[in-house]
Amino acid sequence: MSRKLNGTARETLRAAGVSVADWRERNHMGDTWMGDVCGCPDDRCIGLHHEGPDDCECLPALLSDPIEQWNNDAIEALHVDTAIKELAEHALQDCTELRTSVLDFADLLAATDGAGLTHAEIAGRLRNLARGQW
Ligand SMILES: [Zn+2]
Ligand SMILES: [Zn+2]
């Protein structure tokens, strides 16, 4: 089922400098938004995660997740290991433990020419590293 994003979602995306098309792409959707109208990629957010159409906390949280934000750019980048190092240096500078894990992962990717992983798998590994740290 396709839906249009509501005004609050559009405003939140605009404030974060993310276009609606970017947001669809970042969530692996084609030309049609398949999430909820509040901007959450979950197609049933309103009524489950929150009550009203304008008080979604998923969208702002996803937009502020540094890995989520970095994901789109880095996936397009040729030098993924370099992009990951930049992520560690900038976004994660206050989180020593995670930063070290991410830098180790970047070294592994550099040493093994991507370790045979697709970009989506690399992003998934990074999410797993981050899980439990935030
Ligand atoms: Zn949600
Ligand atoms: Zn929501």
Give a description of the structure.
The chain has 134 residues and is mainly alpha-helical. It folds into two domains: 58 residues, no CATH class; 64 residues, no CATH class. Helices cover 55% and strands 0% of the residues. The chain has seven helices and no strands. Helix 4 packs antiparallel against helix 5. The longest helix is centred in the last third of the chain and has 16 residues. The protein is elongated, with a radius of gyration of 16 Å. 23% of the residues are buried. The mean pLDDT is 80.
At a glance:
The protein is mostly helical.
Distance between the amino and carboxyl termini: 32 Å
Q: Structural class of the secondary structure composition?
A: mainly alpha
Average pLDDT reading = 80
Q: Beta-strand percentage?
A: under 5%
Looking at the chains present, what oligomeric state does this protein adopt?
A: single chain
Total DSSP E strands: 0
Shape: elongated
Features:
single chain, 134 residues, mainly alpha, 2 domains, elongated, binds zinc ion
Question: Secondary structure elements and their pairing?
Answer:
Blueprint: H1 7-16, H2 20-26, H3 58-64, H4 66-76, H5 80-90, H6 96-111, H7 119-130
Helix pairs in contact: 4-5, 4-7, 5-6
This protein binds zinc ion (2 copies).
